[in-house]
Design a protein that fits this description.
Blueprint lengths: L13 H21 L1 H23 L4 H13 L6 H18 L4 H25 L5 H26 L3 E3 L3 E5 H22 L3 H28 L15 H21 L3 H4 L5
Antiparallel strand pairs: 1-2
Helix pairs in contact: 1-2, 2-3, 2-5, 3-4, 3-5, 4-5, 5-6, 5-9, 6-7, 6-8, 6-9, 7-8, 8-9
Enzyme class: transferase
Subcellular location: Cell membrane
Pathway: Lipid metabolism; Phospholipid metabolism; CDP-diacylglycerol biosynthesis; CDP-diacylglycerol from sn-glycerol 3-phosphate: step 3/3
Length: 274
């Protein structure tokens, strides 16, 4: 997406991205469709892999500890008592702070990383299982994020142009960011028609989803830059690590759950009432 990329190389990893997406998207849709324990297990797997990735890029000495607490927090969600999940993650925070070697910044990095990688899948589970039409909400928001990502990739790499935030993520361009927003506006029009609600509500929601997804992506890019790594991992060909793939969706799920609880009428306005 950066204009510095040679044109002949701008889509060099497109094949790998498409293959990975063809595998990941059906799995993600199936997990969200089923909800409950099926989604909790999928969230636990994602949280565990991301915890391992965070330990690798941050230099945490006991990656298995982060993996265990991140995964167990997600697996505690279907038990029906959020206090259990909260207790697990708090225990993980304490252990991470104790085990981390070096100065307080290392301990802070371990604690932050555990919370960060766990909060993203937990937010998706809470969105799916919330007191609204969670299945539709999660599926809509996932599709919006995927549309935003795809439009940013093709528009940015196709048009190039000025960079969005060169210090944080030199590959992102204004053209890609604009294309992502336009794609989510189109998705918003389609969603409003399906849900039979005013177009303006879903168009605004689409813009917000694209902006939040891109901010989530930029935030994770900034974290990687501070640890001087390009990708969080290499488990997903063409994409990098799991953190690289779900950073935008995790941010959208978190803020969606927050917004739905702060403004209980919002799901009804979107046609997502239970």
């Amino acid at each position: 997406m950066g204009d510095w990329t040679p044109r002949e190389l701008r889509f060099s990893n497109l094949g790998l991205r498409l293959i990975s997406s063809a595998i990941l998207i059906p799995l993600g849709l199936a997990a969200v469709w089923s909800g409950g324990w099926g989604l909790a297990v999928a969230c636990a797997a994602a949280a565990g892999v991301m915890a391992w990735e965070w330990a690798h890029i941050s230099g945490f000495v006991k990656p298995a500890l982060l993996v265990a607490f991140a995964a167990l927090t997600c697996l505690a969600l279907p038990l029906g008592n959020m206090g259990i999940a909260l207790g697990v993650i708090l225990a993980g925070v304490v252990f991470a702070a104790i085990v981390a070697k070096g100065a307080w910044n290392h301990r802070g990095s371990a604690v932050f990383g555990l919370i960060y990688v766990t909060l993203m899948p937990v937010s998706l589970w809470l969105l799916r299982e919330g007191p609204w039409d969670g299945r539709s909400a999660a599926l809509y928001f996932m599709s919006f994020v995927w549309a935003s990502d795809a439009a940013a990739y093709f528009t940015g790499r196709g048009l190039g142009g000025p960079r969005l935030l060169p210090k944080e993520s030199p590959n992102k361009t204004w053209s890609g960011a604009s294309g992502a927003v336009v794609a989510c506006i189109v998705c918003g029009v389609a969603a409003a028609d399906i849900q039979m609600v005013p177009f303006a509500v879903w168009i605004i929601a689409g813009i917000a989803i694209s902006v939040v997804a891109q901010l989530g992506d930029l935030f994770e890019s900034g974290l990687k830059r501070r640890f001087r790594v390009k990708d969080s991992g290499s488990i997903l060909p063409g994409h990098g690590g799991v953190m690289d793939r779900v950073d935008g969706l995790g941010a959208v799920a978190f803020f969606a759950v927050l917004a739905f609880h702060i403004a209980p009428s919002l799901p009804d306005m979107l046609g997502l009432q239970a």
